[in-house]
């Protein structure tokens, strides 16, 4: 028999090397840090963030940052992060949401709680207010994410369009419906909303119907009546011609475009859209109005600190990485950097710092948060992703009268319950 | 067989076996196992028996998505392969510019599906889309292009458009392999152009057509990006295909167990249809 096995062995070795070894052999003696954040694509803070990475690499010449950031609009970003963690390929530093979505990541033990680290670095820890810390706490009461800026959601309006048709700003439901009717009649899109990516509409209609008690009820005691009430109201506004003609298929990014171009008068969205607006002086932000029979206070908001930097346990314990991932997080969450981020994305800074020189609408937003009666986290941060997805995908069925809101909610509730063992 | 041959065969097969094993069979077997679990992909991993399969059988959206996928398959066979044949016959019969048409028709295959999807999104958009701007320019009313009735067709158009060129190239190559003497002999017998196509060209390229049809059928099961980018399966699941529904459940909804169940269903459908197609298309192939 011919001796074929040495060559076989060689092939196996080459294959094994090809499959496993590439990443290590390619580095140039530098410590590689893989960072995944949502400051990519169209994110307004992208510039500030990329500059910060460059500055960090200048300060630490032996560090090479591999930046895999992408925009958080839509669900691709969430998918990427979840898949990275699920496959054991977690980045050294991840900027991700807190709440229900992060719970599986936290419970997998792949990220480090900050309590001990905070105790060692008082100055860094004290910069974050207790209020902020409270909001980013995980189910187990520990902090795994250090936030930079908070966000708020609300009703953004193009003032000039209201002026043109002699309308008052939609501060209550009557003015809101009148505005919807008038704009619809005059060929202006009343609300730039995507019913395919209807995250913000779902939250605000439910909050308006049920106040914080209803909005934050999850499925704890069955389905809160305000949820069905809120979702049915979306159908009412849809029937009034409140949304774009192709609202069932456009994405959130396209809806934002309609508002930016002033083809639409209003949009229910978050503080992050301010950065991309061209005519910021013409835009005003107000809380979403309380619907007739709704239980909300006019100052109830969906807002908070729902994202932050997670530190990979693997990276933190890896002696070769010399704790540099933590250094990077400390650098990115320093007072000076937070200020830069807040200036770029219009968010509410997580540390005590003054943000100056911003257009009026930014200040309005910050003031709105300060004067708020309550701050609730979005519903998708409170219930499981699959259950929320069921509600979101159900909205087109509801507005077309193919399913009732109650039917959609029951299906979602069933999914939420399946998560727990019987 | 020479005694040493077995070793050599094994040796040459090994890389392929390793690669498909690691990247195809291992994940597939893993998916089958996962389909018996309730799993969020990370923390929760609970054995649930055949619960996911019961859910699959009862899931309305799976029914819609399966039917849509079958419809897509039909479009793929009729239009991708059909148009591919027609275009190939036309291009084969012209004297000049063959290479030009070959490149033009093949070009869409090389563009990323995401880019094509984005382009068609911009065509269909109601307020700012190209189609509606054209309509308005010519004095017509704007049209909502993506409704529950039209959405599947609206996503099928780019799917067909992208892959026609692929089958066109396969068929054109097959046609060019037919020896000229066949046609010359037929010419002497007084054959017409259409007869030439029906009695000589088509029978001689039947093997390649069959391959194309099989590729189109299995390709239709994998349609994902275009639908995902253009309609996300909407409005109200009307353009959902199995690929998008699996993605939506697995990744957006973090239901990895159920997502794996849908994946198994896609594989079963794929095997089923390849076998059926193979049976139906069994026809003596002519070798020359």
From TrEMBL, chain A:
Q: Which Pfam families match?
A: SBP_bac_1
Q: Which UniProt keywords apply?
A: Signal
**InterPro entries registered for this protein in UniProt:** Bact_solute-bd_prot1, SBP
- Where would one find the signal peptide in this protein? 1-25
Which regions form coiled coils? none
**Keyword Membrane among UniProt keywords:** no
Please identify the protein, giving its name as recorded. Answer: Carbohydrate ABC transporter substrate-binding protein (CUT1 family)
Automatic annotation (TrEMBL), chain B:
* Domain ABC transmembrane type-1, chain residue ranges per copy: 66-277
- CDD domains the record matches: TM_PBP2 (cd06261)
Q: Which InterPro entries match?
A: ABC_transporter_permease (IPR051393), MetI-like (IPR000515), MetI-like_sf (IPR035906)
Q: Which domain of life is it from?
A: Bacteria
Q: Which UniProt keywords apply?
A: Cell membrane, Membrane, Transmembrane, Transmembrane helix, Transport
Q: Where are the transmembrane segments?
A: 7-28, 72-91, 103-124, 152-175, 213-235, 255-277
Matching entries from PROSITE patterns are given as: ABC_TM1
> Which SUPFAM superfamilies does the annotation name?
MetI-like
Q: Topology in the membrane?
A: Multi-pass membrane protein
In Pfam terms, one family for this protein is BPD_transp_1
Localisation per UniProt entry: Cell membrane
Query: Which PANTHER family does the UniProt entry name for this protein?
Result: ABC TRANSPORTER PERMEASE PROTEIN, INNER MEMBRANE ABC TRANSPORTER PERMEASE PROTEIN YCJO
The UniProt similarity line reads: Belongs to the binding-protein-dependent transport system permease family.
Instruction: State what protein this is by name.
Output: Carbohydrate ABC transporter membrane protein 1 (CUT1 family)
């Amino acid at each position: 028999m011919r001796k074929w096995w040495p060559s076989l062995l060689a092939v196996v070795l080459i294959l094994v090397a090809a499959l496993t070894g590439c990443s290590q052999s390619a580095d140039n003696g530098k410590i590689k840090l893989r960072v995944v954040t949502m400051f990519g694509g169209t994110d307004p803070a992208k510039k500030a963030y990329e500059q910060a990475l460059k500055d960090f690499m200048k300060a630490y010449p032996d560090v090479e940052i591999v930046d895999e950031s992408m925009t958080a609009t839509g669900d691709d970003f969430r998918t990427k992060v979840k898949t990275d963690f699920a496959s054991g390929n977690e980045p050294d530093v991840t900027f991700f949401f807190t709440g229900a979505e992060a719970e599986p990541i936290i419970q997998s033990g792949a990220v480090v709680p900050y309590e001990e680290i905070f105790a060692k670095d008082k100055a860094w820890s004290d910069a974050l207010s207790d209020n902020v810390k409270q909001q980013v706490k995980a189910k187990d009461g520990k902090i795994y994410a250090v936030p930079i800026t908070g966000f708020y959601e609300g009703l953004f309006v193009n003032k000039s369009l209201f002026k043109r048709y002699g309308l008052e700003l939609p501060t209550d439901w009557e003015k809101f419906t009148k505005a919807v009717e008038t704009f619809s009649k005059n060929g202006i899109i009343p609300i730039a909303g995507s019913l395919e990516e209807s995250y913000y509409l779902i939250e605000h209609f439910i909050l308006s119907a049920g106040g914080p008690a209803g909005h934050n009820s999850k499925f704890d005691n069955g389905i809160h009546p305000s949820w069905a009430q809120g979702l049915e109201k979306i159908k009412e506004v849809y029937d009034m011609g409140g949304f774009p003609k192709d609202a069932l298929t456009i994405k959130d990014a396209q809806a934002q475009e309609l508002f930016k171009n002033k083809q639409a008068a209003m949009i229910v969205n978050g503080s992050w859209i301010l950065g991309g607006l061209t005519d910021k002086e013409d835009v005003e932000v107000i809380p979403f109005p309380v619907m007739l029979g709704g239980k909300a206070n006019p100052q109830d908001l969906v807002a908070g600190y729902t994202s932050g930097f997670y530190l990979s346990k693997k990276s933190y314990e890896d002696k070769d990485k010399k704790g540099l991932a933590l250094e990077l997080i400390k650098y990115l969450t320093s007072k000076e950097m937070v200020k830069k981020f807040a200036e770029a994305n219009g968010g509410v800074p997580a540390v005590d710092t003054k943000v100056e020189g911003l257009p009026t609408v930014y200040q309005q937003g910050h003031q709105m948060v300060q004067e708020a009666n309550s701050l609730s986290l979005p519903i998708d941060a409170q219930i499981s992703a699959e259950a929320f997805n069921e509600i979101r995908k159900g909205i087109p069925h509801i507005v077309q009268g193919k399913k009732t809101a109650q039917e959609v909610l029951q299906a979602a509730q069933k999914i939420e319950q399946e998560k727990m063992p019987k | 067989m020479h005694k040493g041959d077995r070793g050599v065969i094994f040796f040459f097969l090994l890389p392929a076996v390793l690669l498909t094993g690691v990247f195809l069979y291992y994940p597939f077997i893993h998916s089958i196992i996962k389909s018996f679990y309730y799993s969020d992909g990370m923390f929760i991993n609970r054995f649930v028996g055949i619960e996911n399969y019961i859910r699959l059988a009862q899931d309305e959206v799976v029914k819609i998505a399966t039917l849509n996928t079958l419809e897509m398959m039909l479009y793929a066979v009729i239009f991708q392969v059909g148009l591919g044949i027609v275009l190939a016959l036309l291009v084969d019969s012209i004297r000049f510019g063959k290479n030009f048409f070959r490149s033009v028709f093949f070009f869409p295959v090389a563009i990323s599906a995401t880019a094509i999807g984005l382009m068609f999104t911009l065509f269909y958009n109601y307020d700012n889309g190209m189609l509606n701007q054209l309509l308005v320019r010519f004095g017509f009313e704007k049209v909502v292009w993506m409704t529950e009735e039209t959405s599947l067709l609206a996503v099928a158009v780019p799917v067909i458009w992208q892959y026609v060129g692929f089958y066109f190239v396969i068929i054109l190559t097959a046609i060019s392999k037919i020896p000229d003497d066949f046609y010359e002999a037929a010419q002497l017998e007084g054959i017409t152009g259409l007869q030439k196509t029906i009695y000589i060209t088509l029978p001689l390229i039947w093997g390649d057509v069959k391959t194309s049809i099989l590729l189109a059928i299995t390709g239709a099961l994998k349609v994902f990006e275009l639908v995902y980018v253009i309609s996300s399966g909407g409005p109200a699941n009307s353009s959902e295909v199995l690929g998008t529904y699996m993605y939506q459940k697995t990744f957006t909804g973090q239901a990895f167990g159920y997502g794996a169940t849908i994946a198994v269903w896609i594989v079963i459908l794929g095997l089923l249809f390849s076998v059926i197609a193979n049976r139906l298309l069994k026809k003596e192939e002519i070798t020359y």
